[in-house]
Amino acid sequence: MKNIVFTVVLLILIFSCTEKVTKENKTVTLTGTIANYDQDTLYMNNISSKFMLFKEDIQGIPLEGRNNFNYKFELEKPTYFQIGRTFLYLSPGDSLVANLDTKSRSLAKFEGRGAEANNYLTNVPYPKGGSYWGDREIALKIETYQEIPEAFKKSVDHRLEELNKLNSVSDEFKMLEKARTKFDYVNSMNNLFYLYYAKVRKGEMKQETMDTKIEEASNYLIPYKQSLLDDFNKKEYLQLEVFQSVLYSLSDDDFTSKHQLVELDATLKEYVRTRDLLNELKFNGYSNEIGDKLKIASQNITTKNYATVLQDVQKEYETITKGNPASDLIFTTLKNGNVALSDYKGKVIVLDLWATWCGPCMKEKPFFEALEKKYHGNENIEFISLSIDTEKVWREYFEENDIVGNQLQINRSQLTNYKVAGIPRFFVIDKNFKIVDVFAPLPSSGDLEKLMNQYI
């Protein structure tokens, strides 16, 4: 009897300890350094939440001495994160030492618990760079589209070989990364312009010829893509950046028909519809038309999470429509001071949101500056050129370029109330500090001047 009681007590203690360890094991510790970074806060984006749930979850990691960090947070389950271009795969209980560099994810180095998965991710290719086309050693040797499958198979085989060597990663991680490898292969075969664009740029091939070649190559590569797209209807793949690229093709009926693929899963179809509406909203701004689209979609989409997202985002964007009060902002001046957006109340405010790295912004800049010069001296209007560069980059730009108009700077993270997903963006705010349009027309179109003249 004593032995039975002792055994029961022992089992209770074991289970209690196990439960205690599980609870304590949800903390992730992330320490290390970041190179080539000029801000005092490092931003870590939850990729799994962003891609799968359309929910932004950005954690600000304070930096000591501009490049050192020591950060802890609670995590319920393994999740993909991103700092700059570096992908992270963090699991509850990880204690990771990370040495990062904003120049490239390939320069990152990891030690500690969780390091094996993250060191593997340092060599993940860039989908927007054509995936395996980024492997210049292989890509530059390809002369015809017939060589593509075998050439990039070397990249695939190498990635799978490295993945299979991993001993301390979960089966789920291996499943996801094996899928990423396949989708990168498909993405590479979908980006055929990389084979021809150099010749077009040099004038050795006409655009029409390239288009014909790409269509011919696409038909040739169909069987190679078919064999890799035999298992794509899994919502877990949504957290893979490259799957987002391939999903554009998979949501195209012509593509799936031509490749004889199974129909896209109903949930993924609703995901695509939600994503497309959110992208339209982010880049074109809120209007009655897009508002109606959101309302109809939220009523018809059966996946509760996606319907809720559309309902919530409609409410959020309604706060930055015409007639609503403008949210105040604090800017940095070239004289090391600060000024608020509300300081210009009483004037029509015309704001250009730009950055030195933004090509379209730099093309619009002369048109905006021409407007500023045209209305210079008019006390009823204020033109603001607002850079989202780091303060250092912004100041260095004006060491070599003329200062035209009112040049100010802000950290992009402070613009969340205005839903800034991309630039260039132009704001018009009336004399009563109410929104006219925060998705205003481009200066080059002539419509921005027409709009602001209605309120001067």
Oligomer classification: single chain
Number of helices, counting only DSSP H or I runs of 4 residues or more: 16
Structural class: alpha+beta
Portion in beta strands: 15-25%
Domain count, please report it. Answer: 4
| Main sheet attributes: strand count, strand direction, barrel closure | 7 strands, mixed
Explain how this protein is built.
- The protein has 456 residues and is α+β, with helices and mostly antiparallel strands.
- It has four domains: 27-114, Immunoglobulin-like; 127-264, no CATH class; 269-318, no CATH class; 330-453, Glutaredoxin.
- It has helices at residues 2-24, 47-53, 115-121, 136-139, 148-164, 171-190, 193-201, 207-226, 241-250, 253-258, 266-284, 288-300, 304-318, 359-374, 391-400, 447-453; strands spanning 27-35, 41-46, 58-62, 68-74, 79-83, 86-90, 95-101, 109-113, 330-333, 338-340, 348-354, 381-387, 406-409, 425-429, 435-437.
- The protein has a seven-stranded mixed β-sheet with strand order 10-9-13-12-11-14-15, covered by helices on one side. Strands 4-1-7-8 form a four-stranded mixed β-sheet. A four-stranded antiparallel β-sheet has the order 3-2-5-6.
- Helix 7 packs antiparallel against helix 8, helix 11 runs antiparallel to helix 12 and helix 12 (288-300) packs antiparallel against helix 13.
- The radius of gyration is 26 Å and the shape is globular.
- The chain starts with a helix and ends with a helix.
- 27% of the residues are buried.
- Mean pLDDT is 92; it is low at 5-9 and 18-22.
